[in-house]
Amino acid sequence: MTAQFDESKIKRHPKGSGDEGGQFASKGGTDFEDDDQSGAYLDEELSTKEKKALALSIAEAMGFPEKSVKFLEKAPPGERGLRGMAFHGDRFGRGFKAGYKDGDILLVLGNLNTREMLVGVTAHEIAHHWFRRSMDSPDRNPVVNDLLNRSRTHERLRREDGVTKYSRDFWVLHQHGVATYLQAANETYAEIMSLQASGGDLSGVSAAWTRVFNGISSQHSLLRKKPKGKT
What we know:
Shape: globular
Helix content: 40-55%
Number of helices: 7
Strand order of the largest sheet: 3-5-4
Radius of gyration: 17 Å
Number of domains: 1
């Protein structure tokens, strides 16, 4: 257990130019290239206004409140490679000023240069909150309970995480006592969500992880339908 563990220490970009959060690996562990990508997702003409509208449309489709989606055009000093971040209890105190609340996500639009990145990063960060809320619910389904209680499926989940290089790296960190089991599972869940949203390659998602992904997503869907103020 590492209360001091900082996800920003994990480099997602092959050049290691930035930190953390939303800068995710896609297509079976192949990291995004720089701005010289070509293909259907290239969007040199996409304005800041259009980027915001696209991100908010993803949030709406996922049932995430628009008011909790925050934007920066450029990353703060020392965070120049940052693309996104999910704010929750242990994610404060990294030099960010007041203005972010528990439950918010942050998207750094200047570092989200393709539609694929923008859609995937938005989904990835929202998924972190879905995961946490499902874990915190007192009415957890059997799949979520198994994950939380580290049942016999624990080792299989670690062994079968073939989703992205980024998520696999978290399981290595877990083995070395740097990341917790639930941090690793949270990242894998978020990576699957980002790939699903952005049309990435899901062939690396095993049956065990498909069960976990569906179980958490189902749990969260039930939570969304409950009256406000109830968990």
